[in-house]
Structure formats: C-alpha cells, structure tokens
Amino acid sequence: MSENRRAAVLGSPIAHSLSPVLHRAAYEQLGLRGWTYDRFEVDEAALPGFFKRLDEAGGPAWAGLSLTMPLKRAVIPLLDRISDTAASVEAVNTVVFTEDGGRIGDNTDIPGMLAALRERGVERVERAAVLGAGATASSALAALSRICAGEVTAYVRSGARAAEMRQWGERLGVAVRTADWSDAAEAFRAPLVIATTPAGTTDALAAAVPERPGALFDVLYDPWPTALAAAWSARGGAVVGGLDLLVHQAVLQVERMTGRAPAPLAAMRQAGEAALAAR
C-alpha cells in the first residue's frame, strides 16, 4: 500500500499527544512512504465542521482519525456505525474511513488495556480495584469484564460518581462495589489495581503500597513514573504504565487504518520512549 493517505489525532488540548510520533514510526517501519499523520486542536463544538471539511477537502484520501478527550462520545452521531466494543462504553477513539466513504467508529483503548496487561503476565485475576471514575474508568471496567472473575471495587470521591460506576458495572456485566476515596489505600489488597486518575492524585497513596503488591496499571505516562508506580516497582510489584496502553491501542489503530498487521510494536514503543525522554 504505497499511495498517499492521511490520518490525524483530534482533541483539546492536543499539543502533548504522542500519537503522531507513534503512528509515523509505524508508517516508516511498514514502508508507507506517502502516509502522513498530523494533530489538530478540535473541541466538541468544532468537530462537525471538521468532518464537513474532510468531505470537501482535496488531496490525499483520509484513512482514519484518532480521537482523545473531549471527543470520544461527541463523535458518535457523526459516524455511520460503531463497533460493539465502542458501543459498550459509548466511546470511540478510532475512526476508519472505508473505500466507499463510510465512517466506522471503534475503541482500541479496551483491547489495548488487555494487551498491555497480557504483556506483563496479567491474564486473569480473581478481583480488582479501580481508582477514579472518569471516562478511562469505564474502559477499565470493560477490560476487567473479560479478565476479572470476581468483584471490582471502585474508589471514588462522590455519591454521583459511585452511582455512575455501579451503572457501568451493570451495563458491562461486572460486579462493582464502590468505596470512598478516603479508603483508597485499601485498593492495594487487590491482585490488580487500575489507577485512572489525573496526575498527582495518587501521590499521597505511594507510602501505603504493601510489602508484596500485586499488579498496578497506572494509565498516566507523563510524568513517569508516578510516585505510586515508583513505590510499586520498588516493592517488586508488576507495573503497567500509560505508555504501554498508548502504544498498544495505537498498534491496533495502525492495523485498522492501514490494513497492515502486525503493526511494529517495538519500533512504536521505542519512538514513544525517545519522545518522552526528550521532553
């Protein structure tokens, strides 16, 4: 596949995104010389207009789009159909344009989480804990629905967030128990902890990491390591980081957009690590 094609990541803010680094590294390894991947600052209000301009634009055909916050739900009405995975959490992070102009929405965050965990030897757990209750937390529950045999405890800051997580659990077929954030250190008793909170939120919990922790999946990648991830590693626990997630979900995006598989995981990770180190 050597013809010129375009792809990009959309979101707001978007300047920090590593997606161009990862996708361009993949194109180079796959020999897709005429492919380009850019980033565009687009918020919810601007998204319909962006799609309209895509339809009117000349030049290379569009292969696909990566979507970050706050567009993962806002894009759904603009698509022709979405995958069952995306529908399960009402979130699309990948749009693939078909030969006949169709717009297909997918979610590679969920299988990306599973692939990142599997790479660290986490394939099945008896129970798990989730720190936080935002959009990433619902994706975490969707991933856990496939690998967690028992209960998931979600540690949240408000009754409204607790209700949301229980609703997601019912929808996804996960037994979700909610607990107050003040008890978040109790999460570390679980064999798998998934931290989905913003930078700095879990720093105060680092001192509570037990002597023999299980596995930690911290979805942040910048700054890295987080205080929690560093403490976890120091005690010998397995750690999956946000770059692992970013790379694995980008691998799946590249495969869907280009039709080429497998995407070059090692080269994409190396490019991401180099870009982070340079910041």
Could you explain the architecture of this structure?
The chain has helices at 19-30, 47-56, 84-89, 109-119, 135-147, 159-172, 227-234, 242-258, 265-277; strands at 5-11, 35-41, 61-67, 81-82, 94-97, 103-106, 128-131, 152-156, 176-180, 192-195, 215-218, 238-240. By secondary structure, it is an alpha/beta fold. A 6-stranded mixed beta sheet has the order 2-1-3-5-6-4. Helix 1 (19-30) crosses helix 9. The protein is globular and about 55 Å long.
Helix/strand order: EHEHEEHEEHEHEHEEEHEHH
From the alpha carbons, calculate the radius of gyration and give it in angstroms. Answer: 19 Å
Count of helical segments?
9
Rough shape? Answer: globular
Quick description:
With 279 residues, the chain is an alpha/beta fold. The chain has helices spanning 19-30, 47-56, 84-89, 109-119, 135-147, 159-172, 227-234, 242-258, 265-277; strands spanning 5-11, 35-41, 61-67, 81-82, 94-97, 103-106, 128-131, 152-156, 176-180, 192-195, 215-218, 238-240.
Attribute tags:
globular, 9 helices, alpha/beta
Topology diagram in text:
Blueprint: E1 5-11, H1 19-30, E2 35-41, H2 47-56, E3 61-67, E4 81-82, H3 84-89, E5 94-97, E6 103-106, H4 109-119, E7 128-131, H5 135-147, E8 152-156, H6 159-172, E9 176-180, E10 192-195, E11 215-218, H7 227-234, E12 238-240, H8 242-258, H9 265-277
Parallel strand pairs: 1-2, 1-3, 4-6, 7-8, 7-10, 8-9, 10-11, 11-12
Antiparallel strand pairs: 3-5, 5-6
